[in-house]
């Protein structure tokens, strides 16, 4: 198993998938919260991120999904709760489609199901080339104002510092490979109606990358879903408003039966 990961607690397994360009520390508040409430929380670094190596030049979301299944098999997890934020949410949608029967409940946070516009697709390819050449620092500083809300930046310097650190420390080769692979991802919208497990859709009210309308679309298509909009948060409500996010997730897990 080539993925670096943490597992915390005992009980019903919850596998949480970080977004781009982050690492498993993104889920630290949720791992602690859920472990204290009877869950075994597994938080991996995706291939090419954090402490997980890669030699890929392009990493498809199907490859990330297969890695997660391999990790679950390694840990003896036949069925598990799966959560993902942003790119992690797209990987979760890919995994549910590719590996039916493995996921018993689903969290889709600040993500979107559709395809990029041609311009956005090209921007991913161009950004991959750019960060391969110059590294992550300038890219991270450009992303930061869009990652978290103005309110968070004004009141939570700890969150801003954590987000900046994750982005600046992301391995440039892995981040570039993911951008290239993500540009070629399929449209997940047609698959949403086939998702039949309890699903929590969460989005920050101020999210610029995946606006509330994208979450509402996912919620409409997944008949077993619940939608929660977190006020005052941008693209990372699990860090910006962790109390509200944790409460929504705990309530969902309890109500969906995914607890012991």
UniProtKB/TrEMBL annotation:
Domain AB hydrolase-1: 13-241
InterPro entries the record matches: AB_hydrolase_1, AB_hydrolase_fold, AB_hydrolase_sf, Epox_hydrolase-like
UniProt GO MF annotations: hydrolase activity
Extent of the signal sequence: none
Top-level taxon: Bacteria
Keywords: Hydrolase
Coiled-coil annotated residue ranges, if any: none
Protein name: Hydrolase
Source organism (scientific name): Amycolatopsis vancoresmycina DSM 44592
Lineage of producing organism: Bacteria, Bacillati, Actinomycetota, Actinomycetes, Pseudonocardiales
């Amino acid at each position: 198993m080539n993925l670096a990961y943490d597992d915390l607690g005992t009980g019903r397994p919850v596998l949480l998938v970080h977004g781009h360009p982050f690492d498993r520390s993104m889920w630290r508040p949720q791992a602690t919260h859920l472990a204290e409430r009877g869950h075994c929380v597994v938080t991996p670094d995706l291939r090419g991120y954090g402490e997980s190596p890669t030699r890929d030049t392009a990493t498809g979301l199907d490859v990330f999904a297969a890695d997660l299944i391999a990790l679950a098999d390694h840990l003896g997890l036949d069925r598990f709760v799966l959560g993902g934020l942003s790119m992690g949410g797209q990987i979760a949608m890919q995994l549910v489609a590719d590996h039916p029967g493995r996921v018993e409940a689903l969290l889709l946070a600040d993500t979107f199901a559709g395809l990029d516009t041609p311009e956005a697709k090209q921007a991913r390819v161009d950004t991959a080339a750019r960060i391969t050449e110059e590294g992550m620092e300038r890219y991270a500083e450009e992303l930061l104002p869009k990652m978290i809300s103005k309110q968070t930046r004004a009141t939570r310097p700890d969150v801003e510092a954590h987000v900046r650190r994750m982005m600046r420390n992301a391995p440039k080769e892995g981040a570039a490979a993911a951008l290239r692979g993500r540009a070629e991802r399929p449209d997940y919208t047609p698959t949403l109606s086939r998702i039949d497990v309890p699903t929590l859709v969460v989005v920050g009210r101020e999210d610029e990358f995946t606006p509330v309308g994208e979450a509402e679309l996912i919620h409409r298509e997944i008949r077993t879903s619940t939608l929660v909009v977190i006020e005052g948060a941008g693209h990372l409500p699990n860090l910006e408003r962790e109390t509200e996010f944790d409460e929504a997730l705990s309530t969902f897990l309890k109500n969906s039966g995914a607890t012991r």
